[in-house]
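ARCHIVE CARD
Drawer: 12
Card no.: 0347
Subject: one protein chain, sequence and derived structure
Cross-reference: see card 0346
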Amino acid sequence: MVTDPISDMLTRIRNAINARHKAVEIPNSKFKLQIAKILEEEGFIQSFDKISKDKFSFIKINLKYSKDKRTSVIKEIKRISKPGLRVYVNKTEIPRILGGLGTSIISTSKGVMTGSKAREIGVGGEILCSII
């Protein structure tokens, strides 16, 4: 049993990048699908698919590498808000990751979105992770 499924997802992605895998499978949930969708829209992964096997379903994430196929597009992916210490921000406190070069993913009352989109809409929420 996993106590923090988002941390598990990010760790699986991080481990797959370190091992230079082309793809990684993650247990499915609606929340993880929304995060995968944001990663694809922001250009951090190539694509993702929902795969059903018997009773279980997985999200297959195809990782993205540079043209030399040695370095990943994702340099660092870090969990910010954890089950033991939740981190909430209002619309004026949303952090800019590396001056706008990175992305933060925020869970708001309007759904899961990037930090820049939340700033644009004018909502705050829980900072899930940062990606550089």
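Annotation on reverse: The first helix runs from residue 5 to 18. The chain has three helices and eight strands.
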